[in-house]
Amino acid sequence: QSVLPQPPSVSGTPGQRVTISCSGSSSNIGNNVVHWYQQLPATAPKLLIFRTSQRPSGVPDRFSGSKSGTSASLAISGLQSEDEADYYCAAWDDTLNGWVFGGGTKLTVL
Amino acid sequence: EVQLVESGGGLAQPGRSLRLSCKASGFIFDDYAMHWVRQLPGKGLEWVSGISWDSGRIGYAESVKGRFIVSRDNAKNSLFLQMNRLRPEDMAFYYCIKGGGAQQPGYFDVWGRGTLVAVSS
Q: Which residues of A touch B100 (CB under 8 A)?
């Protein structure tokens, strides 16, 4: 059982907008920033969103992140086939004194 | 270009040891924290350990505390993970990661390709 529950899967058609949720608590998301990672098939994860809503250079602005209270969300607009991947949220946990990840969400582009 | 190349993975028997190495290039190594994160094949991610730029601050996941030791050699741009008393549940891909952000805890900025550790008798 992940410390940061995420839906196991989401799907959408090209051009659609999808969101992936990440649920936490006051010791992690509620008190710290959230980061998101994208893992394309058979590759290492890659930083997608850092500090809740910032995009590294090279990440399209179709990807956006937000947070409200103890939950965070990743939104992907204008869905493309190359967005098919696993997406993970992560945050520092003040109680565990370590990093916690979401269980991951598999995005399928229909 | 930032590059992180892990090595040292392989097959080990339960109770034995392995030492992972990560050679970094393309950035000023001793300016950044470094981390190890693992992933069981087909499964989710788990943070294993992190070390600050000067080795002054070190952290471990509860699952490896007391068995794994992280270290770094800034003169050689290298990160290490000494894995002792290995258990079957330690079997995973281990990723070396460059930390990001000036303020800690930062984030996982750049990931290596990973090295596979298998634990079986």
A: 47, 50
pLDDT tens digits for range A57-85: 999 999 999 999 999 999 999 999 999 99
Exposure of B102 by Cβ count < 10 A (0-12 exposed, 13-18 middle, 19+ buried)?
exposed
Half-sphere exposure (Cβ direction) of B112: Cα atoms closer than 13 Å: 27
Q: Name the amino acid, one letter, at A17.
A: R
Chain A residue with minimal CA distance to B108?
A: A47
Put simply, the answer to whether B62 touches A96 (Cβ < 8 Å) is: yes
B15-B67-B97 Cα angle (round to 5): 115
Exposure b/e, A26-42, CB count within 10 A at least 16 = b: ebbbeebbbbbbbbeee
Whether A74 contacts A19, CB under 8 Å: yes
- Asked if B50's CB is within 8 angstroms of A90's CB, the reply is no
How far is the C-alpha of B41 from the C-alpha of A41, rounded, in Å? Answer: 12
Q: A43: which residues sit within 8 A by CB, 6+ positions away? A: none
Contact of A63 with A48, CB cutoff 8 Å: yes
Q: What span, in angstroms and rounded, lies between the C-alpha atoms of A15 and A54?
A: 22
For B1-36, the pLDDT digits (tens) are 999 999 999 999 999 999 999 999 999 999 999 999
Q: What DSSP assignment string belongs to B46-102?
A: EEEEEE-TTSS-EEE-TTTTTTEEEEEEGGGTEEEEEE-S--GGG-EEEEEEEEESS
